[in-house]
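Quick note —
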Amino acid sequence: MHQKQINRAYLRELFGAMLVYMLLLVAANKLGRPMAEGMARTVALASPMIGVLLVIWVIARHFRRIDEYIRMVTLENMVIAAAVTAGLTFTYGFLENAGYPLLSMFVVLPLMFGVWGLVCCVRGLANR
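Predicted structure written out below.
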């Protein structure tokens, strides 16, 4: 597969998985929150994880399709993003001890994906 075709397939699959996630998230919040406590409510509120697992699967498929050099650069970008995210969240933990508001764990993954995107953009511009 040519690299542009690989990227198009990845984006198509990624946006599809994100659409599944968003639909499940809206449905879980609309239908799951008013349900009575119990296993059914827990399953309903955790159902958006199906979309998250699809996103992970899409990323893994993308890694199998790309060539070795792009795989290496992408993994380096992910490692940098994970390290920056770890540093930011660890630092904020100390700030919480200083009285800053507690942050939900829901902040961590979007932060890491945002940092990953930023790292990709910065490294892409630097390598032109």
